[in-house]
Amino acid sequence: MKITILCVGKIKEKYFADAIAEYSKRLSRYCKLEIIEVTDEKTPDHASQTEVDQIKAKEGERLLKYTRDDAYKIVLAIQGRRMTSEKFSSYIEQLGVRGVSHIQFFIGGSLGLDDRIIQKADCALSFSDMTFPHQLMRVILLEQIYRGYRIQFGEPYHK
């Protein structure tokens, strides 16, 4: 299985970069992982809704360049579907059984994802009603993918 994480913004904090590198290394035995970062737009303080929409559209345009029609697309969104780690593991496994060989996960920037990306998604996934920094969401997503593979293969992993 190939897994691509498409995200807005660069990781600047060393502790996030270290965690991403660690989970990327761990995942290398289970899947082919690719992380694609697109440039985020600077958001002015007190941005109007028009400015917010324009920023999301520009970031969305950059993500669309990497969107593959043959990939199964999962967006991370607060309004998305919630799953336990076991259910997420089973979901990924079932996609493989159905013949899906490439999954693309989308993580928006500080303002979220452009509607065009959300509309192209096969699934919207939520980790919480809370809002997390997009840098931290990348780490959380990688950890859950790793945990999902460990569950899928019956390997021990802390609960």
Strand-helix topology:
Elements lengths: L1 E7 L5 H14 L4 E7 L10 H16 L7 E10 L3 H13 L4 E6 L7 H6 L2 E3 L8 H19 L7
Parallel strand pairs: 1-2, 1-4, 3-4, 3-5
Helix pairs in contact: 1-5, 3-5
By secondary-structure content and strand pairing, the structural class works out as alpha/beta
Biggest pleated sheet: 5 strands, parallel
Percent helix: 40-55%
| Mean pLDDT reading | 95
Are there runs of 5+ residues with pLDDT below 50, and where? none
How do the helices and strands follow one another from N- to C-terminus?
Answer: EHEHEHEHEH
Query: Total number of β-strand segments?
Result: 5
- What amount of the residues lies in strands? 15-25%
Shape assignment:
globular
Family: Belongs to the RNA methyltransferase RlmH family.
Function: Specifically methylates the pseudouridine at position 1915 (m3Psi1915) in 23S rRNA.
Keywords: Cytoplasm, Methyltransferase, rRNA processing, S-adenosyl-L-methionine, Transferase
Catalytic activity: pseudouridine(1915) in 23S rRNA + S-adenosyl-L-methionine = N(3)-methylpseudouridine(1915) in 23S rRNA + S-adenosyl-L-homocysteine + H(+)
